[in-house]
């Protein structure tokens, strides 16, 4: 473990490790191109289950809304909340179920997006 000013700092996982371990679902490049997103996108398994599930047609809808959110949040902010997107059950989410977008450096310092729920923080 590394040491920080407050004591030991736990090691962090790379994006690739999170995908390999099943914590993140790596969105296929074709889906990203179709939605017009120029960034790699990873979705936590909890967010995937709530917003995409086994309904492949939902992924395009989710990515389109994510694109709109990113367009409104960046460059003022590197995080945002996707609004107006229902869950796979058809319900609008309550705050603790809202889909969040985080923009950050990937494993090679490229810009990547992570889609997650507040419980995933």
Question: TL;DR of this structure?
Answer:
With 121 residues, the protein is of the alpha+beta class. It has four helices and seven strands. It is globular and about 35 Å long.
Question: What are the defining features of this structure?
Answer:
121 residues; five-stranded mixed sheet; globular; alpha+beta; two-stranded antiparallel sheet; 7 strands
Report what the structure shows.
This protein has 121 residues and is of the alpha+beta class. Helices cover 31% and strands 24% of the residues. The chain has four helices and seven strands; from the N terminus they run ββαβαβααβββ. The protein has helices at residues 15-20, 29-35, 45-51, 56-73; strands spanning 2-4, 7-9, 24-26, 40-44, 79-81, 100-105, 111-116. A five-stranded mixed beta sheet has the order 3-4-7-6-5. A two-stranded antiparallel sheet has the order 1-2. A hairpin with a 5-residue loop joins strand 6 and strand 7 (111-116). Helix 2 (29-35) packs across helix 4 (56-73). Mean pLDDT is 91; it is low at 1-6.
Number of helices: 4
Query: Which parts are unreliable, with pLDDT below 50 for 5 consecutive residues or more?
Result: 1-6
Q: In percent, how much strand structure appears in the residues?
A: 15-25%
Average predicted confidence as pLDDT: 91
The level of helicity is 25-40%
The strand count comes to 7
Task: Characterize the overall form.
Answer: globular
Describe the sheet with the most strands: 5 strands, mixed
> Using only CA atoms, what is the Rg?
15 Å
Distance between the termini: 21 Å
SSE pattern, N- to C-terminal: EEHEHEHHEEE
Helix vs. strand class:
alpha+beta
Biggest sheet, strands in spatial order? 3-4-7-6-5
């Amino acid at each position: 473990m590394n040491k920080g000013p407050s004591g030991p700092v736990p090691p962090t996982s790379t994006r690739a490790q999170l995908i390999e371990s099943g914590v993140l679902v790596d969105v296929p490049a074709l889906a990203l191109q179709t939605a017009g997103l120029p960034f790699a996108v990873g979705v936590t398994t909890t967010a995937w289950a709530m917003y995409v599930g086994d309904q492949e047609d939902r992924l395009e809808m989710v990515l389109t809304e994510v694109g709109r959110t990113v367009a409104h949040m960046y460059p003022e902010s590197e995080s945002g909340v996707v609004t107006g997107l229902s869950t796979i059950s058809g319900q609008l989410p309550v705050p603790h179920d809202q889909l969040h977008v985080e923009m950050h450096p990937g494993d090679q310092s490229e810009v990547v997006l992570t889609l997650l729920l507040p419980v995933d923080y």
